[in-house]
Design the sequence.
């Protein structure tokens, strides 16, 4: 019952992140159902070019999984409990992603591979390495949504929660813009990322004794013998 109440509290307190995320999920789901992924990607690809190339190259770099590892290490200097929560989120979401990429959806190819075999030329950014396999789900989208949802849940200002969600959406879309993923891939990444965060925050029950920097925790443990 307590965990169920925590789940309701997290949802209620983070409407300004979860509502735009839900609208994004619904919109992407509609387009994925209404159009086949090839036509949908060609529709998006026509907008590639100009100043937006630089913008989406920068955005996509912030969705690398190493960003979460870095965030976990930094959090250890400020709040061990938050670091543990984020580590759990990272491990669970990574396992789910690789289960799909390497086992269940191993034959889901990326746009570059698909369009090459269809003999259709895409508008691509010069010099960028194009992946061909392990398309579903998008790891960058999952990283962006899980990391920004996690921090949004600790921030009180609603406008920052909203900005975090829009930023996550833009990072996810950068993968489509750069032809590294199809729309359905970033949709799956967004779902896995946010759902994992909500469930971990509500059900992990990490002890409050870790609510301090790791150094302080280890010092206290040494002084008392145990905590």
Sequence:
């Amino acid at each position: 019952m307590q965990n169920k109440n925590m789940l309701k509290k997290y949802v209620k307190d983070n409407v300004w992140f979860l509502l735009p995320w839900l609208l994004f999920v619904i919109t992407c789901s509609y387009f994925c159902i209404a159009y086949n992924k090839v036509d949908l990607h060609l529709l998006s690809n026509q907008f590639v070019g100009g100043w937006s190339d630089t913008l989406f190259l920068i955005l996509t770099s912030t969705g690398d999984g190493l960003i979460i590892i870095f965030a976990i290490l930094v959090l250890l200097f400020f709040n061990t409990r938050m670091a543990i929560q984020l580590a759990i989120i990272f491990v669970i979401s990574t396992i789910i992603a690789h289960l799909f990429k390497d086992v269940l959806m191993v034959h889901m190819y990326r746009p570059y591979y698909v369009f090459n075999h269809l003999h259709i030329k895409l508008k691509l950014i010069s010099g960028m390495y194009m992946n061909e396999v392990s398309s579903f789900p998008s790891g960058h989208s999952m990283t962006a949504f899980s990391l920004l949802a996690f921090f949004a849940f600790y921030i009180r200002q609603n406008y920052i929660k909203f900005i975090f969600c829009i930023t996550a959406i833009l990072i996810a879309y950068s993968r489509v813009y750069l032809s590294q993923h199809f729309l359905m891939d970033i949709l799956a990444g967004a779902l896995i990322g946010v759902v994992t965060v909500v469930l971990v925050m509500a059900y992990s029950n990490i002890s409050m004794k870790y609510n301090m920097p790791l150094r302080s925790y280890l010092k206290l443990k040494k002084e008392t013998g145990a905590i």
